[in-house]
Write a structure and sequence with these properties.
Structural class of chain A: mainly alpha
Distance between the termini of chain A: 13 Å
Distance between the termini of chain B: 64 Å
Number of strands of chain B: 19
Helix content of chain A: 55-70%
Oligomer: heterodimer
Strand content of chain B: 15-25%
Radius of gyration of chain A: 24 Å
Largest interface: A-B, 38 and 55 residues
Helix content of chain B: 10-25%
Amino acid sequence: MSEPNPRGTEPADSAADSAAVGVLDVAASEEGAKAPKAIEGRSPGQLAWMRLRRDRTARGSIWVLGFFIVIAILAPLIEKVYGLGPTVNSPDLLDRSGLPLGYFGGIDFTTNNASNHIHILGVMPGTGWDIFMQFVYGARTSLIVAALATLLSVVIGVVIGIVAGYLGGWIDQALTWFIDYMLAFPFVLMAIAIIPIVNTYLADSSGYVPPAERMATIIVVFSLFGWMSTARLVRGQVISLREREYVDAARAAGAGRGHIMFKQILPNLWAPILVTFSLSLPATVTAEAALSFLGIGVQQPTPDWGRMINDSLSYMQTDWMYLVIPGFSIWALVLAFNLFGDATRDALDPKSSR
Amino acid sequence: MRKTVKALAFGALAVGVALSAACTKNTGDSGTNKQAEAQKFIVDYKGETVTPAPEIEGAKSGGTMTVVQEADFEHLDPSQIYVSNALNYSQLFYRTLTTYIETGKEGDPTKLVGDLATNAGETTDGGKTWKYTLRDGLKYEDGSPILSKDIAYTVSRAFGPLGAQGPQFIQAALDANYGKDGGYTGPTADKPYAPGISTPDDKTIIFSFATPHLEVPYLVAFPTTAPIPAAKDTKEKYEREFVSSGPYKRKEYVAGTKLVLEKNPNWDPKTDPLRHQYVDQWVFDMTADPKAQTDRLTAATGPDAAAVMMDNVPPNSIPTVKGNAELMKRVFTGPNQYVYYLNINTTRVTDVDVRRALNYALDRDAYIKALGGPDVADPATTIQSPVLPSYKKFDVYPSLPDGHGDVEKAKKLLEGKTVPKLTFCTSNTTANQNVAAVLVESFKRAGFEITPKFIERSAYYTTIGVKGVDCDLMSSAWGQDYPDSNSVLGVLMDGTKIVAEGNNNYSYFNESTINDKLKTLREMQDRGAAAALYGDLDEQIMKDFAPVVPLRYGRNFTIAGPNVGGTFLNQYSQFNATSSYVKS
């Protein structure tokens, strides 16, 4: 992908840019102080947004993400308009062995079939469920789990990072050691080990775990094992920020530690936090799909892309379309998130290496 | 830009290739499975079966036969063997008091005959004592004679921990306290034999019971009666160091990997009504999962040309196999003994009309397709399997002709009732998750609100076997232990057998009229007449009480190599080993 860099053609703005995000880069701020060419007042946020808008990759990925987020939010509405639920059996759309009739896994844009309904992405073999509706509700599962888990892990990471970075001393040493300790755990392996144990604990007398609790387990485990990189990053930033004059000023004015950490330093960290957030989201999406693929994620009848892929693998030779759709969905969502994350980083910190 | 064009061209080419590969319209195929016939069954009480076993037509001697399987046999200790694959292949090296003879030809009856014994058993008091006389010239692999005391020892041994995983029927019949305090727990110096076993001479063994047990000829066909010479019993190690009484003996056994059997020169065909010794060597290759087995039998190269697979072709590979006309000639299909039920917990769903409505509402077509279609299963309407002699074909809750059930009738039955919310328990496997969701949807059409509950696979049967379990619907499967309905209806529908835990009557169905009938049938001497009555009872239970929704009869779909001859799928759903030979 050799996407031309639109910012490369705008030297005029670069000075203002670096001033805006100078807190991230001491050298840049000094350079920015030399030649302030500000004609109209723009907040750093506005500037970042402007740069983001000019980035073609960012625009594209925003559209793709927007699409997934909208269908995830509007899933019940789409179901109403489309007129078919995600788990409506249509055995008559399948042949005797349970494979979809017609072309490409039962893709049908006419209502001239056994279910009297269109199936724009075909139907699932075995059940005859509409793949489009599975896709729509699957987006919901993926995004809810990924968004909540990432949010939680970022919150944990930020708090630990700021505390470690600002307080320093033995607290910093202990927390850094703890971060390293947690980083030593192979994440997916731990999830595979822990989730069934937690589920056994949550289960009722007959071994059943309600779907909501199952999902909550995944989210909590993900956030407990996903905060370390954020914490490290934030700690590093805080160490450079805590020596700044405005922090000294606040300290001189008699501000407490909590105030300095969360009211003075934290607002200057939003840019890197946003970037980690948008870059760790796609990792969580794939991890969730991987767990469902391995059979310890969400269960039927909650639609899920990872489980769909697992299910579809055995049909690879007979109904490959079924594998393509969830596979493509995860690929598109993860790619869009990654590109968006990269673009955000570039927009917020144009001096970072590219 | 050039790059983009190139990439686009490649992309288009790739998509085009993919499309053309799949651009065939699936229009479905037609045809139905042939309905299984109820089996004819003969018990040879008089000892009329000839020895040696009649030659198999076209059989040749020599060669090596390979059995491809996924893992080692769970047990090969005769007291522990209960799984059907071991029941089948252990016939190559264990002989039992009685055995079954099948020919695999349509219309030929299955026979229960004397194996080590001269006949299927003699009783003069209505089934309270059974006498077995051993044939002449029986020898172990080392040439020492097989004596009745060895069989008495083996049966007694099965009372202890070494028999814990094996069938428990004969133990429970001989000792009323079996498994409880004061029960017999295996041979000791002062109590060498279990209560009720006596050996008046080297050739006679007598079992005596407190109550009539007409199923004894079936029970002594289990390897529980395969003789173990007490001097060579290595206890736990006997799993690997077994002594052969049949036509083959151990040559090499690498646990979990490979078992090789070679001819046993001390086996005398003149003493055996069942077994042949055509093949020089049997090799059990324990390293291939069902998919790998399918691939190997599809290729059938080298030693695999004379190989059979132990498992069924996985449902998803069936379409590929069916697309290969040459391969289809080597495919063996047929019903197996398993019937799958949706048990309705009758202690929780007490309204029989609700249970009937569930029977009407089930969409069996959707259910069977979710499992992989008619190559994997036939729709079931009875409690008994079609392979049972007592099977009676009936359908008291007929579906509409499209096979999707009869939702209108179900709704009518539910009219004016508040339909209870039901929980449906099933074991947690990927396949089960899909199937459960299909079932839930199919009942939804009649207004049932059902929540699926997935229970860990290893704990599933333990969980639902606890009396008072909080599941309304439970899926289960049952295959008879011996071809008599006492081992089906007598187990699944007998309310007097409900205990605190470890139940098999998952509907917790307890009707005194049915219990009484089952008792009468159990004690009938003429098992043929009893079989017909069991068929009627099956229909009556379904019609009047509907404690289960019969889901499907299991089917086999498995492949043999092109050089395998003389075999067929027998009652263990396995390739019959005792009659097989290697062609060319």
